[in-house]
Amino acid sequence: METNKNYFLQAFLLLIISAGAFIAFKTILPKKLMEQTKLESKNVVIDSLLLDALDEGKNEEFVDANDTLIKKIITYKPNPKLGIKYTSEKFDNYKGYQHIIPFYEKLQQLEATKTGSIRIAYFGDSMNDGDMIVQDVRKLFQEQFGGQGVGFVNITSESASSRATIKHEFSSNWKTQSYLKTKSPTRSFGVNGHVFFANDTLHPTWVKFKANNYKHLTQLNNPTLFYGNSTNKEAMISYVVGKDTIYKKLNGENQLNTLKLADNLKSVKVNFINAENVPIYGFNFDDGKGVHVDNFSNRGNSGLPISIFNVGMMQEFNNKLDYDLVVLHYGTNVLNYGSYDYSWYEKRMTKVVAHIKQCFPGVAVLVISTADKSTKYDLEMKTDSAVVPLAMAQKKYAVKSEAGFVNLYTLMGGDGSMVKWVEAVPSKANKDYTHFNYTGSKEIAKLIYKEIYEGFLLFKTLNKGYIVPKRKNDSVYTKIDSTNE
Q1: Domains plus CATH for the chain?
Q2: Measured between alpha carbons, how far is 453 from 470 in angstroms, rounded to an integer?
Q3: Which residues are CB-neighbours of 107 under 8 A, at least 6 positions away?
Q4: pTM to 2 decimals?
Q5: d(Cα 435, Cα 431) in Å, to the nearest integer?
Q6: Are 102 and 459 in contact (CB under 8 A)?
Q7: For 135-157, what is each residue's pLDDT tens digit?
Q8: Are 278 and 20 in contact (CB under 8 A)?
Q9: Which among 403, 392, 298 is positioned nearest to 345, based on CA atoms?
Q10: How far apart are the two ends of the chain, measured CA to CA in Å?
């Protein structure tokens, strides 16, 4: 019995000593007890250009000539075409609507005439995986301005099984090159950052799409294949419409080629026959009217891979798809890599936007900042210390690039907001404290759309001296002499 008492006393003393040691050392332990990598989704990876930029950033000094930008008043000159001039903005409240005038001008024309179309390229990361957020932005635009169709869809996709806006299946033998992993592809990447090859001569290579019963997405509107040039004269596709099997040759004579399958289908399975070495990019589905939004999201994307787009090829895509706005929605994969100095990212993304403007001449650019993200500090989930510095860097490169800006971090509530979104009932974000779920994605889409639409309302107020001519085939605005109103 005495032995048991001694053991109990020893254990109790050990517990007291351990507790005292923890309290003593707590003050010198790092506040960040758990690295965020333990909380991040398995979908969060890093693209190769980000790794390169991180290595280079450690060895270079970035002297920012606009280091006082945060104290600067941003002034605007009158738009050379319309004469519209926006009021000055403080950096803290920067939105840059002035730089989206070409998009708003065309949107006003679409609203007034109910004719024509507008197209948005929405580039993003795992936040938009499976068409998250983008699907609801698309829906809001199409409800307001018309349009049918899901837009451009890859040949294969890692998120196909989780995408609700279209049922997407494909054979497992496609050969794929992605701009996240390959800097020098054998053939130019498409606007989606991928190029696909049906190089398996022993097994069928196919892709299948089926429309779901989502509003505005109930059909595969005008399914059209996009593919590159090739000397292969035997390549063809086959697909079934009704009781007929249709064969069509892939005549890859141009840098970028299109092949329309039919007017509208509910589903289609396309087989690629003798199509070795023909670069395949994807299918587009739209009715040619209203607004169309293409989701070009990639897990692990920092935005930097856009810098390796081939300008000539992108201009070809732009000639066929006619973009009016490019959205850059990044941040998830840039947070937390050893420093809160994101000047290296600001510098490189400024070059990315300049490259986009070469690829898509005259197209407006809109930057969407990182959302809030939480990390464990002192056993409590709080806004990660890197979020605000990254959002600041994103705003800086938007200002310097003359792009519009949406501060998603502040829109969702700012400091501590991700914790609130996770703990909401029903929950609006995942337990990784990084990604939104379907409920949260719908709300985020509404916040983004509201920002864009409020800018449109301001544009219409400033542009009230212009009307759209009654002739539907006249696409230009005519100024009204205010003395004759």
Answers
A1: 29-147+288-485 (3.40.50.1110), 152-287 (2.60.120)
A2: 25
A3: 118, 145, 456
A4: 0.86
A5: 8
A6: no
A7: 999 999 999 999 999 999 999 99
A8: no
A9: 392
A10: 105
